Amino acid sequence: MSTNCVSPPELDDKQLLLYLDGEVDDETASHLKRCAYCRGKAETLDRLQKRMTTRLYRLTCPPPIELGEYHLRMLPAFQMLAVAQHLRQCPHCTQEVAELEGFLSDLAPIREDSLLGKAKVLIAQLVGGQGEFGSAPVAALRGEDKGPITFEVDGVVIILDIQPTNKGMVNILGQVAADHQEQWTGAFVELRKAGELEFSATVDDLGAFRSEGVIPGPKELRITPEGGSVVVVMNFELSI
Hints:
Strand content: 25-35%
Shape: elongated
Largest sheet: 6 strands, mixed
Distance between the termini: 71 Å
Number of helices: 7
Order of helices and strands: HHHHHHHEEEEEEEEEEE
Helix content: 25-40%
Structural class: alpha+beta
Number of strands: 11
């Protein structure tokens, strides 16, 4: 590379960055065509940009092991919530989790409780409110003035109050009640549709949680405490 610009003054970094970004004017293009020195500066700057981009790429993404632990529900509730929020915005991590799910499902027919490690999965049943739906395979939870809907399993009671909004959606006010109430503080709450996460929250110290702006339709609710059994409300439909 030439040690001097053939047509001073040499191009500055701003001009070279514009060139690398494809925003080059005719004068700069003509200069670079004639000047090996400035072309060399542009190539060096381009390599530096690519090196920095590589280092910064997905800097805020969770490491792969954390995504794996999220999928297996082995993280503390606050981390589960943070990763779930990240997945709603990051297509790269969402793809990684999907690939992990596919990989695990291809290994062997894995039962749901084995995916959750040693945690026992408890399937809650509809026991109160909307009683006319109690014998149906799909419980329809309407946001009407019929009182809250109650599910129960092994002494754990889940109460859902469905409130319609003026935008064709519903808000869910939830309450978890159990003999050992403290075990459910900080539990991770997931609302899913066809396996895809729609909303997530955590149970507060009073056993309450809330999801807002939920689109009506078929849902599954999971509540995962930091230790103990996972409670699942399966195959219910929210309607306005």
